[in-house]
Specification:
About 65% of the residues lie in helices and about 10% in strands. The protein is built from eight helices and four strands, in the order αββββααααααα. Strands 1-2 form a two-stranded antiparallel ribbon. The chain is globular.
Length: about 160
């Protein structure tokens, strides 16, 4: 994410996606102030990883808040695309937090899923139980290793870092 890109606003068929300016502080969505993601002890992991993870969590939460897919998006294909995109963002959050493997990162992973369940209960079950997110959120150490193994396989196939 580039800082200039975060300042842009896009209108998507009546739904307004607002991107926050900068990576720090609080984000305003629909006139409400939401506290910072706050990863406290994760700051010691290294600047790039922590900054990427903080930004990913902020943007994911912001996307959950920004558009109500049922009311704002009329076209079925666009709604399905945006649902799949949100699903991919939730998967990325889960994988990054599982890579860190600390109690705080596990709590943050549970928090982001609870936030989705609270804000968009209709889409929660679709997103949580699709193949991508189901495989990255299997419980226990085996589930963590299985999810990270799948992530590394996808890295080799699709050539991303």
């Amino acid at each position: 994410l580039l800082r200039g890109d975060l300042a842009r606003r896009r209108v998507v068929h009546g739904g307004l996606l607002r991107f926050a300016r900068g990576l720090g502080g609080c984000i305003r969505a629909h006139g409400r102030r939401r506290p910072d993601v706050g990863l406290g002890s994760l700051r010691g992991l290294g600047g790039a990883l922590c900054l990427a993870l903080c930004a990913q969590l902020r943007v994911t939460r912001f996307m959950i808040d920004a558009v109500d897919l049922d009311e704002d998006v009329v076209q079925k294909k666009l709604r399905r695309y945006m649902e799949n995109y949100l699903s991919m963002m939730m998967c990325i959050c889960s994988v990054f937090l599982r890579m860190i493997n600390t109690p705080e990162s596990g709590q943050k992973r549970n928090d982001i899923w609870e936030y989705l369940k609270e804000r968009r209960p209709g889409f929660y079950s679709h997103i949580r139980h699709n193949v991508l997110n189901f495989s990255t959120n299997i419980g226990g150490e085996f589930g963590r290793r299985f999810g990270l193994f799948g992530y590394r396989i996808a890295q080799k196939i699709f050539k991303f870092n």
